[in-house]
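Record filed here:
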Amino acid sequence: MSNGTTPSPLINGIWAVGTDVSRSAKLFRLVMLAVAGTMLIALSAQLSVPMWPVPMTMQTFAVTIIGATYGWRLGGATVALYLAEGAIGLPVFAGGGNLASLAGPTAGYLFAFVAAAALVGALMEKGWGQSILKTTLAMVVGYVVIFAGGLAWLATFTGFEKALVAGLYPFMPGAAAKIALAVAILPMVGKLVQKLRK
């Protein structure tokens, strides 16, 4: 490790399972982690600044943190479960939850969350959590994926130039702040995990 960061996914340090445990115990762990992750994203969605057509929330922060701590498989699966929860009507999105949310102006951002979590998780599994610079780059990549997916879909409603004005420019300062917060939090979590395991 260098620069005070920690390797990821951190979840193996928080809740590790040995090779001698049953498949059902491993499955139980994965399900509990996924459900906890969806709860975190749902809570982060409620921390929002009302804007139209895209509200500013802490969802992107939660999604990238989950990718970084869970790894690409569990991170991507957790976010996919979150979308499924919203699709069946659970109030997990910023505007509640229903199938229509996955076809409205913000749907591109929501679907891009899955790819972003998986990609950030994959990068962290490749050792990008070993330095502050690489951790920052992993988070930036995640946000690029989210904005690219979101803008591509939003542009079908508003046109590309209006999509940039409504769905990118106002969110760039917040994205930078959330990336900085994530990069600051991940090493602290890693150090806490190391202390708890001693």
